[in-house]
Each structure stands twice: as C-alpha cells, then as structure tokens.
Amino acid sequence: MDRHHPLAHPARVALVLSLTYTVLCAGYIFVSTSLAARHADSLDTLARIEQWKGVLFILITAAIFYMFAYIVLRKIHRQAEQLHDQEATLLKADRLNLAGAMAMSIAHDMNNQITILSMGMEELRLTAPTANAECMRCLRSAVEQLGELSHQLLATGRQRRDTEMTKANLRTLAEITIDMAQRHPRVASCTLVLSMPDVMTTKVIQSLVSHMLMNAILNAADATKGGGRIEIRGMTNGEQVTLEVHDDGPGIPEDQRAHVIKPFYTTKSHGHGLGFLSIDYCARMHEGVLSIDRSDLGGCCVRVTFPQV
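The structure assignment produced for this chain is given below.
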C-alpha cells in the first residue's frame, strides 16, 4: 500500500473514527434527551422513552458496527485472496523455471542417445540389408520423433515455442502411431480400431500429436489390462478438429478426472503421472483443450479439441 494513502496510518484513522463516533453518540444523547423531556408528561412516560431510546441506540450502533466490520473483513478477505494468488503465481513460476532447466538437461542427454541410435541403425542397414524393412521403417520413425521431441523439450526449457506446425493428414499420422503402438508389449494384445476420414488435413506439430496419441493408447491399454478394445476417432466440426481415444475399461471416476492431469498423479503402481500431463501439453501447444469423459464403449474417452489451421 502507498505510504501516502490515508489507510497507511492506522492510528490516525482509528482516532478519527473514535472521535466521530463520540461526537455522534453525544449528539444523539443530548438531542434525544431534550426531545424526551419536552414530550414526556410524567416520569413513567420519560422512563419508557429512555428505555426505547436506549434500545434504538443499541440497534443503530449494532448496525453501524456490522457495516464497518463487514467492510473491513471483506477488504481483508480480498487482500488475503490476492496474496494467495500472488504466492501461487510465484510458486508456479519457480516450478516452471525448474521444469525448464530439467527439460533442457534431459533434451541434451536425449540428443546424445539419439545420435547413438541413428548410427546403430545405419550400421544395421549396411550390414543387414535383408532385415525387416517394416521394422526398420518403424524404428527410423521412432528415432525421428525422438529427435523432434528433444527439440521441443529444448524449446520448452527456453519458454518459447519454436517448433513450426506443418500440414499433415491426421489419419496417416494416426496410422503410423497405431503401427508403433501395436509393437509395444502393453498394447500388443489389445484390439485397436481407427475411425477417421481418409483425409483429415490440418497444421500440427506432428511429433507432439503422435506422442499424445501414443500416451492415450498406452493409458487405454493399461485401463483394459492389456486386452481390451481401443478406438481412435477423429472428426472435424467447422473450424475445429477433435481427436478421441476410447476404451472399454472401467473408466475414470468423475471426481478423479481433474486430478489425472496434474503432474505425478497416478493410480497405477508402475505409473509416473506424466501421461495425461503430456496429452494436456500437446493440447495447449495447439491452443486446444483436453477433456476426459465417459466413452460409449463403457470406459474412458480422452478428447482433444483444437482449432483447424
């Protein structure tokens, strides 16, 4: 508060208020007593007037006290809320700075491992030309996505988004992701179904969308204990694109849906609480929204909606 503001001098304010109250009370007593003496025709009448005058005085002062206490307490409550919001903002900023530093450190180490993987794959290609072409293509795609994710981590650490969006057919992107997901041991026994138009083109950060779908599929596979039905759906509605991952598992209780997006919150013994956080990050990077709902398959529906570019 500004030191020149009158409320910055509580002793002065308290003195002014007490003097004002004293003057008003004294004035009330003198005026009311004079009126009572003038209109009372007996001592009994004067006594009754004095009683009602005292009751009226109590009611008026109680009302004034209530209004004053309400205003003061409301102001204190607002200041407490503002202080709490400021503390939360500072804490969030500290966490973001720490997360940024960690992201850059992880991205740096990832780049070293990605370089080793790339060199190893090239050596395999030269020494084993008859190797499974589809498996090599899948590995190459995974390494490329790792590289893009590493670049995105560095951008996040610097608190900026310097990964450009590129035009992509979301069905093709989903097909590649499903192909990779089916090779994961947690998904291998699940039934994956893709329901999406043949052409669904928009500008996206391809690595993030693929990573988002992969995390949603893995979560769905865990929910169905590795043997359920998982449907990946996509649709356009006007200027919006919607991607959904459905499963026939038990679903997420409504009172837990807001918590699963929080960092490190998990209900799985082997979980880290980062899967839904990654999905939410992808949604926000595309200026979209993540929502969790009940699926018509009986389980969970993870829905990401973002503007069509």
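Interim note for the steering committee: The helical segments are 10-39, 43-127, 133-157, 170-181, 206-223, 275-285. The mean pLDDT is 77.
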